[in-house]
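Today's session is about reading a structure prediction critically. Students often jump straight to the picture, but the first step is always the sequence itself: look for stretches that repeat, for charged clusters, for runs of hydrophobic residues. Only then move on to the predicted structure, which in these notes is written as discrete structure tokens rather than atom positions. Here is the chain we will use throughout the hour.
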Amino acid sequence: MLIDNHNRKINYLRLAVTDRCNLRCNYCMPAEGINFSKNDKLLTIPELKEVAEILVEQGIDKIRITGGEPFVRKDLMKLLDHLSQLSGLKDISVTTNATLIGPHIDQLKELGIQNINVSLDAINRDTFERITRRDQYDTVHENLIRLITEGFNVRINFIVLDGQNEQDMLPILEVMKHYPVAVRFLEEMPFNGGSRSFQKIKWDYKTILAHITQHYPNYRKLQSPETSTSINYQIEGHKSTFGLIPSFSRTFCGSCNRLRITATGDVVTCLYGKPKANLRDIVRGADSRKEVKAAIIKAVGSRAKTGFDAQREHTSVFKSSMTSIGG
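Below is the predicted structure for this chain, in token form.
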């Protein structure tokens, strides 16, 4: 079992398999993209398998596969197949933009991988294409509807962007009210590859809630797990639920149970802080399992208490792109 220096149990790993993405969302990176890592700098599938095995041995029982866009990686299903067979791993989930998942939906069902987070920041075509800078609207919505109708546990992640998509918040709730999905509104975070900088946001979680409940006054708060990053609600008459994730306000730090490993092997204990170790060279060396375990224990033992504390570790983190630090 992994226990950090603030007595928090760490049982949830966000494992990035690539820093590449086939979209160019304007809150994540500049239009020209970022300097993606060369292939030899990325953890290979066998290395990802080994790292996952080690972390499960150390008490991780939930793994979320992230990117970049995970399905950009052609061999992703080999990793998912391996993870589905790991004893002690209770929950495997994937965060995706839903552009490339279509051909893999049947195999995901066969592997028992039911939890899919779809990053979707617009329900309107024009808004979607303006934010993503790509013509993938039809593909995303076809795959989303298929995931919903085939019984996957779908959560839609909608980052609220001032002056860009706030007009889509209520329409996406209206469309999704017919389906058993969770629509989760996230505060914008400053990890955008240096495309802009900001110190505060207009659409914090309280403002988002006020906007929604002004139009849907009949709602109730739902019970959420202690480690949940989202504050969850349901509107009367809706099959769907909605949640608020204070990713910029960072109100959930006290119960944080998450560890991140980037596609290049960085161990990240907080998005706002510096990497605490890199596993790539370790896993490629002799006696790798022992050394990886030791590096993980050391990293977990030096976690910042909150995201605000972690932010003080350096001043350059906001030049990073979310796609390079594992979502």
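Discussion point for the tutorial: The mean pLDDT is 93.
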